[in-house]
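Intended use. Records like the one below are meant for learning the mapping from a protein sequence to its folded structure. Do not use them to infer anything beyond what is encoded.
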Amino acid sequence: TDRADITLGGRVLAEGKAGGHTLQDLLQTEFDKLVAEYNDESKLYSQRVVIDHRDRLKAELFELYNSTVKVQCNVIIKEVMRNLEGDVHELVDGIIRTHIWQNANILRTAELPLGGPVESPTTPTVSDISHEEVCSIVKAFWKGLCEGTRTMATSVSTSQDSVQRQLLGRCYGVVQADHSLQQMISGQLNVAVATLIKKRLETMASDVAGAMHKTFEYVLNHRPDGSIKLFSTPEGLQKHYRPARFAGLVLAACLF
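Structure written out for the chain above:
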């Protein structure tokens, strides 16, 4: 019966109906109540036996306490991830745009005279890009993902009130009133966001040719600011071939 009462209290709180009390408060109150009842009922027993059973009772209650808090956190994490999934995918897309598509411009050639040669001794090629430059882009790509993941994981406690309401949904009142719960959620949310990002990258890696082709097409047909490029001559198109190819190769380097 006691276990059922504690679990029910966790479910009520997870749904935001605990009357302003945090789950930790409810569980700690129940914990202290059960230990006190045990002490009252065992006054006439041998102290050695009493202490042994009391320690077992505390260990069992503590385990139940942790499992109930975990249930509550899982409910909240699922709610947050439903509201955050689109932002996670946008984070990945934004990092690719910033650190791969735009960095492809280090290969862009100078404007050639009308009718001038497409190839020239000074035109850089993929082989001219140093290993250090490629590693720098790959490092920036993963650094951006890590920083974005941390920012999202702490959004439940550091964002503006309106953003928190949007992320937490029906769990907003519960989390706002419990700072320790916010910290626990941030840790689990970090893992959940990282897992979703991993799945997105694994999907891209499973069809790396398709991902590279998409990157190639975007860089070929867009300027660094995202506007569409229109080519009036084959020479103009060929001049932007190498940066686009470079972007696709760097994306593969980031994925593998």
